[in-house]
Amino acid sequence: MRERTTAFLEGRQEMPISARPMTNKVILIEPNVTLAEMLSHALTLAGYMVVVAAREAEISGTKLMVGTPPAVLVVDLYEPEEDPIAQLRHIRARWPEAPPLIILTASQHVTEALASTERVIRKPFHLSDLLQAIQQAVTP
Amino acid sequence: MSTVMTLILRLMRLPVMGRLALILGSLVVSLSLYRLAFPATYLGGTLMLPIILSAWLFGLQGGLLCVSVITLILGTSYGIVFGSAFWSSPWYTPFLIGTLYGLALCLVVGVLRYMTDTLLGAQYKIARTEQAYQQEHALNEMKDQALQNLGHELRTPLAQIQGYLELLETFQNQCDAATQARFIMNARGGCEELLSLISTALETVHASEARQSTRLSVFSLQHEIKTVMAHFEPRFMQDYRIKIDIAESVHVHADPRFVRQIVRNLLTNACKYTPAQTCITVSAAAMSAMNEPDGRAGMICVRVSDQGPGIPLEQQSLLFQRFVRLPNATESTQSGIGLGLAICKQLVEAMGGTIWVESTGRNGEGCCFSFTLASGSVVDFESGETQYFEKAKGYA
Fold it and tell me: Which residues of B touch A (CB under 8 A)?
């Protein structure tokens, strides 16, 4: 399990299956490796180019930002270890020109706090809801 | 004013002998002054001090006893000086008035003391009720937090299961057999994680009831640790070299269920947070009186040590609290809700032991979790033989 997930995060961010032509780039910030893998599979199969980072600190100024600018940023606000609101503020501060954000969270509190300003999807979620939210975000 | 009040209230809390000494001292001084001034001046007022003190320090009964003693002493001394002529002497009236005045003062101070006692008692009751309320409130908050945390942690593996199943359902035709198998395996991984979380939550409930349900017996520690290893997760057994360094003769007086669970939790943690292919050692030895002067000498110390990244000193105090996951743990890919070590602490303490961690916090130097158990055997120094604890205590 450890080797598989580590290998996934270290290099193979693009999944072996690519059913549709990739159009939009989605950056996925997901600290949970298994969830990251699942979401990456789903987004790739749905036709997005997916770039995964475990932490938001990894995204700015790295290879993740090179090339096509991302159309959507999907962020899993990891609770309870970190203050998710502060985490979000940090992303906004470090990256003022960030694309539309879609927040994943397991917390009722975070959902209520951010629902008016951000697109928030609460875990456990239907993949179709996430894909729909991304579709809405990328549609001009 | 508040200083005076504090002093007066502090006098009440003096030990009985202290209070008696204070009253006797004031009585001697007052009587001496009275006697020195007699018969030139009447210094009856000085005798009020021991009466006030005794009524305050011992209540109304104490005050009445003091008035009686003073009346007796003065009456006897007047009788010696005046004989039967005392009743017609000029000292009779002040003596009588002084006695009545003393009685009245004793009554007033005694009632004041009674009211103070009642007030303080009521204040104490209120404080206790408030404390009980605060404790109940904190307990409720902790339960709410526990439920919230559990709910939060359950949602992630649920999202994983649901996500992979939905992937299979939606994109089945676009995935080859190997990918489908992998999706199923990951969904199953989520199920196992869910099961593990629920088991941990239930263990916490059992651990909090541990003190009531402890069933102590004497058993071989090595045997129990081997039982744990026999049922330990195969993936951990493959990835780590787990060494048991416990002599067969080491017997402990503990609850075997608890010991198994503690060792299992500590080993699981060690496997979760240390690099694969490193060595994890479980050892046990009696603690020596030289190194352990604080009463742990003679107990058996069980240690689980690893070669992982260690735990920074400033974080070590947080380790055994409920729902605490250190930054190192949260950054790792391992799941958990921060209950394993809290459960260990509860179980160890239920058996009368202590648990602690030692680590320099330097990467690669690892950490060592230790806990103590009562020894199951005692050495008979006359015969040099080891006897089992139960036999030595006459339980067998």
Answer: 149, 151-153, 155-156, 158-164, 166-167, 170-171, 174-176, 179, 183, 186, 189-190, 235, 239, 276, 323, 325, 327, 330-331, 333, 335
